[in-house]
TrEMBL record:
InterPro entries for the chain: Isochorismatase-like_dom, Isochorismatase-like_sf, Isochorismatase_domain
Every Isochorismatase-like domain range: 9-155
Gene3D superfamilies documented for this protein: Isochorismatase-like (3.40.50.850)
Name of this chain's protein: Nicotinamidase-related amidase
Superkingdom as given in the UniProt entry: Bacteria
Organism, as annotated: Paludibacterium purpuratum
Length: 184
């Protein structure tokens, strides 16, 4: 199944000020997330940020919020956004969810499981999620795949939102996201 930008929402999970520094290769993850958020914003996907107990962990990294300043930020204490009941009502009318953020084995995994139980199609962007430890990240990807989530890359999201070359959208995306320095 391919991502359909008309049916999808990007959910950026818990990329917060006090948590990000503890994540393995945090700077690289932040760069990848910025790239993905920009791609989705430019591609017309709605974006939602979630924040796990922001009074304790801080808010979403300002550099990421600045990329989608009109996107809602929802608070939660449950690890799963579905269990928390924090997702804006309009998101639940969408069939597809693109998940990124942290931690892979906690909030990303539990949110994906919750969305799958609702019958949603879930795309987890493997190169835009992270955990404190590599083993937890790897195990999360295995469990997500077994549960039925589609494991994708950032470039898969880009090309599936574009669908074809030769269009004005493709040319603009190529210049903005595929040429020059890109986070690896």
């Amino acid at each position: 199944m391919l991502l359909d930008k008309e049916q999808a929402v990007l959910l950026v999970i818990d990329v917060q000020e006090k948590l990000l520094p503890a994540i393995q290769d945090a700077d690289r993850l932040q760069s990848r997330l910025a790239w993905l958020i920009g791609v989705c914003r430019d591609g017309g996907l709605p974006i939602v940020f979630s924040e796990q107990y922001p009074r304790g962990l801080g808010h979403t990294i300002p550099a990421l919020r600045a990329l989608a300043p009109d996107a809602p930020a929802v608070e939660k204490v449950h690890f799963c956004c579905v269990a928390a009941g924090c997702l804006p009502e309009w998101t639940l009318s969408q069939q597809q969810f693109v998940l990124c953020g942290m931690e892979s084995h906690v909030c990303v995994l539990q949110t994906a499981e919750g969305l799958l139980r609702l019958g949603k199609t879930v795309f987890v962007v493997a190169d835009a999620i992270g955990s404190r430890r590599a083993l937890d990240h790897q195990l999360a990807l295995e469990r997500l795949r077994q549960a039925g989530a589609h494991i994708v890359s950032r470039e898969m999201v880009l090309f599936e939102t574009l669908r074809q070359a030769g269009t004005a959208a493709f040319k603009a995306a190529s210049v903005a996201w595929l040429q020059g320095d890109q986070p690896d």
